[in-house]
Amino acid sequence: MQDDFNVQMNEFLPLRDVVFNTLRQAILTGELKPGERLMEIHLANKLGVSRTPIREAIRKLELEGLVTMIPRRGAEVAQITEKSMTDVLEVRRALDALCAELACERITEAETEQLHRACEAFEAAVKTRDLKKIARADVQLHDIIVQATGNQRLVQLVNNLSEQMYRYRFEYIKDASQHQRLIEEHRIIYESIVKKDRETASQAARVHIDNQKKAIIAQIRSEKTGH
Amino acid sequence: MQDDFNVQMNEFLPLRDVVFNTLRQAILTGELKPGERLMEIHLANKLGVSRTPIREAIRKLELEGLVTMIPRRGAEVAQITEKSMTDVLEVRRALDALCAELACERITEAETEQLHRACEAFEAAVKTRDLKKIARADVQLHDIIVQATGNQRLVQLVNNLSEQMYRYRFEYIKDASQHQRLIEEHRIIYESIVKKDRETASQAARVHIDNQKKAIIAQIRSEKTGH
DNA sequence: CTGATGTATTTTGTATACAAGGATTGTACT
DNA sequence: AGTACAATCCTTGTATACAAAATACATCAG
Q: Which nucleotide C1' is nearest B51 CA?
């Protein structure tokens, strides 16, 4: 299987899952652009597989909302509109708040320790000024909280919603003047979870998303109007 | 296409979607029981189609969480455990509260009118003592609120989560002594949405789910122990 | 009688074949 | 030159074929 996209070759994952991950990644990174048609034979040739795994992968992308089906015309990459992003962010805001509250109740000792380390890792990442590293540290920290809820369904939903914003993941950390505030926000979340202060934790989670929203919406608008 | 399940024969829906809806319905109603294997050739014969649409339908069911894939062994109907239901209900509680809040801000005149009629229809349904009719009226009322949020992603997620509880849809309205309270709860939700009282509306939505949760958990426990 | 091994069957995973609907392009006619 | 119509090509939707893995079963040895 030669590739153009970067295909992860986990030897014994079914091809459909390899294709699914590959296409999803390509869509989320913007390698496949909104509105672009996903033609089965073309993709099959490109990825060196037959149409069958391609089709099955598309069915999953369809349900995930990354792809839009047009009857008798096939799949195309779903448009990203300001509306679709605010819709996603609105839901994520509620679910992130829920995660914070549940984490207060259910976080284990080990996870608390992880969270502590993640906070420090984030501070360290900020010092490097490396956006990729900062983004990764932020995701890491967030994941620990989500996992601490112990709610698998919630984990799955939040991860899916997060993915939708993947291509804007740098926007809200691009502004270095906000870095100190981000560290502060994380500290508040960490401390309120330790203190089991649900209200403060969920409020901080909401603020966190609100800030992301501002950055992402600003970016979308500038993409549309400017240049 | 002959059937055993009730297949909806929307003439120009792709077979995969017909199969998807059919299987989903069968799983949600309990016609296909948790743990039961979904064998492709068998289903293909039963539904009178080839394996291809069956497989594509299964891919979607997989992502919806109604089906579990076992490597090189195929699909089986996902288990319903108390944990999986509380997970779902926990998320739904937060999202229903969000729906109520957003509805306060965004509901249109026409939708308010619909909601009013739905409340009255629910009262009328309760008087008939017909559980099916009551359940339908309740769903109807709920749908109006969800739609009123104007958030398509939210609509999709809430509908999906609701589906997971489909087979318990009668449990929380079985107890006739609670009917009056249900009417009262609906009235509170309706009035607080009209008054744009977010706090009361979301609180009422949460109470509503909490009651469903009690009924459903009680049912699951009785299925497991006594039955 | 029990356990292990080899064979047969079943079932998935993948590829390909075939049919039907849409889109596109070219041509003829106004 | 522009529009309408027809032929062709392309793409999807569906069915089937083939291979490999897993399971079940039966036979044989201890």
A: D15
